[in-house]
Design brief:
about 400 residues; alpha/beta; globular; 4-stranded antiparallel β-sheet; 18 helices; 18 strands; 6-stranded mixed β-sheet
Length: about 400
Amino acid sequence: MALPTWDHPEPLAVDSAPVPEYGAGSLADVLPTLAAGMSVPDMTAAIPELTPADRNCVFLIDGLGWEQLRAHPDEAPFMTSLLASSRGGTGRPITAGYPATTATSLVSIGTGLPPGAHGLPGYTARNPATGELMNQLRWNPWTDPRAWQPHPTIFQLADAAGVHTAQVSSPTFQNTPLTKVALSGGTFHGRLSGEERMDLAAEQLAAGDRSLVYTYYAEVDGKGHRFGIDSDPWRGQLMYVDRLVQRLAEQLPPRSALYVTADHGMIDIPFDEQHRIDFDEDWELRAGVALLGGEGRARHVYAVPGAQADVLTCWREVLGEQFWIASRDEAIAAGWFGPRVDERVYARLGDVIAAARDDVLIIASEREPKESAMVGNHGSMTPVEQLVPLLQVRS
């Protein structure tokens, strides 16, 4: 008797996910490379394509991925002219890290550590001490910042080595816990307008023989979430930030290098049931799940005790053709969060981790109404989310 044919596609293999380029070309490698070039002790030049400079400025544009930049040359003529300079003149991008989300990426760039080491593994993650979900962007509920992320920042290490160190950003961010664990060290300068930030960043670069300056702009990401990367408001923000980059580049003091990068890219997801799978309306996905963390394209799934294997099996059967679905240990072994995951970080990761490959989200319309309504999204390991520029201007 002939055996029946199994025509259901196999779930995506965990090891087929395009893991970020930790250790050679990720956001976590940028500041250690620059600091090594300024003779800061114990720093490693992990991105070999970069040439040392005495004065280094990193301008991080929230939400501006490599693919979005390349697709909009008319809106960003200056940055488009710099594409060939990316990653030390190779014309290549770097990778954000997993998940490709703001809280995780800012701590990666600020500490020089991948997520498995610094311990902010997503938009929301479970606090093992309390069993509650912690929003790591808004720092809610309150958790002691230094206990949650105990490693020093590159800015602190550079400042201790005699490098003039400064952050120039919105005053709103000066005293946030995320800023403290990711970007503290040296002096923080709050300025409201983008033009003021660019001018002050250039002044701070010139303030030392060796300088390390960081500046930031948020609204490309904000407009992308609200209106999408195909919208006029998003294009308007791209045009504005392109002028900011040019303004800063034209003021660089001698012996300086400006690096323009981002924390993640973005993808617009259609508003229909095929593309937005609602966890709150799906009894199969909810079965055995105690907490749903992360975000729509990068989920941490925390099972009730004893249900981990069943939840993994169910999520693979339901979503495995569209998401890379891994157990915690499988994701760690595959290097999703970096070459190692510290013991204090281990239980912050989901029992099951779901990373989107296709143009799809796992929303939670009741638990996360605002997040579920966003047009533009990010978080996973696809090129549109993961690849970010590292444009360079030197003086």
